[in-house]
């Protein structure tokens, strides 16, 4: 069926009277769209729901950009696996679609990467969805790729642990003094521990690290491998399905990896420094305190110049959001 459409007005093309001359002469730094629902095909062929933010600059003397052209190009993200080279090609196509009125691109793709995670000791396992963001920014000659990964982990307070140990030692001394001249051997100690009831426990909390990595032009995204590396450095990533043996192992890991937010930031920075295809980074740490009503934070960066649209600056992947 052929559909005949009569000519329709096109304000952006200049065929409608402009409200005022000033409205079309000033250059604009960012014009585009935020929160576009789309779908992308990841490196391994998995298709993932995503949202996209895209904007370009607008030269002086131009009324507006061609938004629908940007949308159509983003709508093709699931046609082939996304690679760094493919992302750069997409960025150039987005700029080309504006036919010379734009020279600078800002693109952000938000999605969650599903990874199957085994328990620490048992045969249990479950899915984790890791929030990720891919950014492409710059001009045609210098498009830069930034990969942001968000990792949740447990952190146990070193100060609180020391206080808990002190309280336990105090209670032990009091009990020993009450026994007077009774023989105390290893079995007696074990029995006291087993039947003591609730011991003082250090406070711990679910914590989050957001790592924004500037990738070299030939680097692979390798998001899953990078997440594995950072979780090994932290030692206490949150778990999925666990059995009692796994929960005990997790408690032991927390006891062996006491962490202030400063410790986590430095561990992860060393991990980034060891990756030759990472040319710069920004790491944001948030420990959602269980002792306090506020969060503890730490930030470390190296050779990093982020671009964030207004909506993105209002929050961060590292910001802890309680369950709804």
UniProtKB/TrEMBL annotation:
GO terms for molecular function: GTP cyclohydrolase I activity. Residues 1-22 are annotated as: Disordered. It holds the Pfam family GCHY-1. It comes from the Bacteria. Keywords: Hydrolase. InterPro entries: GTP_cyclohydrolase_FolE2/MptA. This is GTP cyclohydrolase I. It comes from Salinicola socius.
